[in-house]
């Protein structure tokens, strides 16, 4: 007798991680496909992590107590509202696991973060994808119209990955005022440290607006801990944070990862400096690309979006041959991460020939 899988698992596509770059004609290469921080660990982080390896024979703190206290203090939150996971995507998965069952609906914009449909499908829930606007923004009116009695969760990605625009704070407040109170509204702020628009969503200020608001944050991007996998959530209702803690596997976050979080929080002045460099480069690149004629959406992440439609693969190859590995979404466009100035200059050099 053949082994069988649950149908929705057997039909799941595999998540595509960003590929590494192959050297260009001058032997140089940059990976711009995963929105990684191009800079190494912040001061003191590597030393602290290395020292922690001396006790690798011991289990980590299963309750994540030190990092929970530190993050809660840093953001003025009650500890009971906070929960951690191995990356914000795992926290998201646990939120869906805790709130949705087979047939329940999860509404989100599309295109958005590639993991959303996978997380929903693995639990047998149903994705309701609402198209973005022509400028790569969330269509909040259309999302409200997509809510049905089966809707359990709404997900908002701000800034939106891969297109870049952030949702205006006042718009999301008005939106939340029209969403049923029994719906969980997940505000994914993985790139919040790069946001400079004063009118953009401020997720932690939404708890008094709707009882089901949850914000997601990560140490993978601005903090540069992508290889150690640490994400966290804060919830308007502590019951949601407790639910995530309940379904998270014990000892999920390693001791070196927890040590890295503490050291990274202590190095935030240096973090701010690095973020400013990336933001300056992002704005410079976006402005120059628009001046060339590229329709780059307003971006508040550490990346830019090239709407390329039917030329996506052609443009992907042009960047690849120049030693730049980007993320291609066939028939839609390219997401290109901001990196070191040399890599960013090469983005511009390639982009000048794309519209010919």
TrEMBL record:
Keyword Cell inner membrane in record: no
The organism's place on the tree of life at top rank: Bacteria
InterPro entries per record: Aminotrans_II_pyridoxalP_BS (IPR001917), Aminotransferase_I/II_large (IPR004839), ArAT (IPR024892), HisP_aminotrans (IPR005861), HistidinolP_aminotransfase (IPR050106), PyrdxlP-dep_Trfase (IPR015424), PyrdxlP-dep_Trfase_major (IPR015421), PyrdxlP-dep_Trfase_small (IPR015422)
Domain Aminotransferase class I/classII large: start-end pairs: 31-341
GO MF annotation list: aromatic-amino-acid transaminase activity; histidinol-phosphate transaminase activity; pyridoxal phosphate binding
Annotated TM spans: none
GO BP: L-histidine biosynthetic process
UniProt xrefs under Pfam families: Aminotran_1_2
Residues that bear N6-(pyridoxal phosphate)lysine: 221
Descriptive protein name: Aromatic amino acid aminotransferase
Organism field: Raineyella antarctica
Gene it is expressed from: pat
